[in-house]
Amino acid sequence: MIEGLAALYIFLLAGFTGFEIISRVPVILHTPLMSGSNFVHGIVLVGAMIALGIAETTSQQVIGFVAVLLAAGNAVGGYVVTERMLEMFKTTGKPGSGSDKQGAHK
């Protein structure tokens, strides 16, 4: 009982701390932060696969399978968003043609 409350307390504390830290990140650092969080999502995916691999009961297997699906979707989505963000900074056309930055209106 106490272990469960301690785990809940740590989870809530981590959630509030994460929210406060992320809300104070300057706009210029969002792309590097996204790339770093994609690395963490990959670790979460590995952890979910390990949890699924050691699952014994059917309910544990279902929860592990859902965890793997959600972690994989989170990791892939993070890379897709990062790629779209980086596309905004790529140049198009010939050098010196007047329009070096790619517009967001495609």
What key phrases describe this protein's structure?
mainly alpha, 3 helices
Overall number of strands: 0
> Which band does the percent of strand residues land in?
under 5%
Radius of gyration, taken over Cα atoms and rounded to an integer in Å: 20 Å
Question: Uncertain runs with pLDDT below 50, 5 residues or more?
Answer: none
Report helical residue fraction.
over 70%
State the helix count: 3
Main β-sheet: number of strands, strand sense, barrel status? none
Rounded average pLDDT: 81
Order of helices and strands: HHH
The class by helix and strand makeup works out as mainly alpha
Shape: flat
Alpha carbon gap, first and last residue: 56 Å
Tell me what you see in this structure.
The chain has a domain at 23-87. The chain is built from three helices and no strands. It has helices spanning 2-23, 30-53, 58-87. α2 (30-53) packs antiparallel against α3. It is flat. It starts with a helix and ends in a 19-residue tail after the last helix.
List the helices and strands and how they pair.
Layout: H1 2-23, H2 30-53, H3 58-87
Provide a quick synopsis of the model.
This protein has 106 residues and is mostly helical.
